[in-house]
Amino acid sequence: MTDLIAPLLEESITIDAPPEHVWSLVSDLARMSRWSPQVVKTIVRGRPIQLGTTMVNLNRRGLLVWPTRTKVVRFEPQQEIAFRVKDNFTIWSLTLTSDGAGGTVLTQRREAPDGVSPVSRTLTDKVLGGVTSFQAELAAGMRETLAKIKVDAER
Fold it and tell me: Is the peptide bond before 48 cis (omega within 30 degrees of 0)?
């Protein structure tokens, strides 16, 4: 039986900083390489970042390096930024909500409601250790990303 692509991967963290401050960090997508264990570089095409902004990301896992092309598909200042990866059909987002005590709950999601592209699926199976293993790695990477954003936001 083939491993199933999870339609949603989600991780959250509470940050002791107001949403406006956290937003100032996460809405600058060029900073993602500072936090993500997989992103080496993000090249943003056009400023300010807004709905429709495109980016090229360089990703790395061990010796494997690959580019992805993305486009901002949801942009609600102080609340959410989401971008669709053209190469595999997934949507990655960061959503901010108040924790009710002056802090922020930051949630990172990887949405794949229709699965992933056939090329991505094949590469995941043949090169990245299979869907189950790679999704666990993505979830761990999300937790690491959120923890690093928390450190920067609480400085």
Answer: yes
Write the pLDDT tens digit of every residue in 47-74.
899 999 999 999 999 999 999 999 999 9
Q: What three-state secondary structure class fits 108? A: strand
Task: Provide the whole-model pTM.
Answer: 0.94
Domains of the chain, by residue range, sit at 8-153
The domain over range 8-153 is classified in CATH as 2.40.30.30:
no
Give yes or no for a contact between 145 and 14, defined as CB atoms under 8 angstroms apart: no
